[in-house]
Design a protein that fits this description.
Strand content: under 5%
Number of strands: 0
Number of helices: 6
Largest sheet: none
Order of helices and strands: HHHHHH
Number of domains: 1
Structural class: mainly alpha
Distance between the termini: 10 Å
Shape: flat
């Protein structure tokens, strides 16, 4: 099976949804109090779960139309979005040189898999 370009786009969109969901989840948990009312009225927490669920549905749809070995590494972009965005929302989070090396390695890995998936196909 050849991976369709729009399936890669769906996975990319899924990573943005998942990263946004993770940021909202952390924000919601940071403001959470230990009572039921706080749990059911915590909009960042609810929104985070919602976006994370939508991202999973989008990922499943994309996986139907592409190779797992090509699409799932693209999903690793999720780690990049969270790493870059979290210091803007949470002052205690930071990007140090080793984290930037990790981000570059993820980008290099996703790029290598994308390039490698083009070669060696018999039509």
């Amino acid at each position: 099976m050849r991976t369709r370009l729009w399936a890669i786009g769906l996975v990319f969109a899924s990573t943005l949804l998942a990263a946004t969901g993770q940021i909202l989840l952390k924000s919601g948990v940071n403001s959470l109090r230990l009572d039921v009312y706080s749990l059911v009225t915590n909009l960042p927490l609810i929104g985070g779960y919602f976006l994370y669920g939508i991202s999973a549905i989008v990922l499943v749809i994309a996986l139907k139309y592409g190779e797992l070995s090509v699409l799932y590494p693209v999903y690793a972009m999720n780690f990049i979005w969270v790493s870059i965005a979290s210091p803007y929302f949470f002052p205690s989070d930071s990007m140090n040189p080793m984290k930037w090396v990790g981000v570059l390695l993820i980008v290099a890995g996703v790029t290598a898999i994308g390039i490698g998936s083009r070669g060696g196909e018999d039509g």
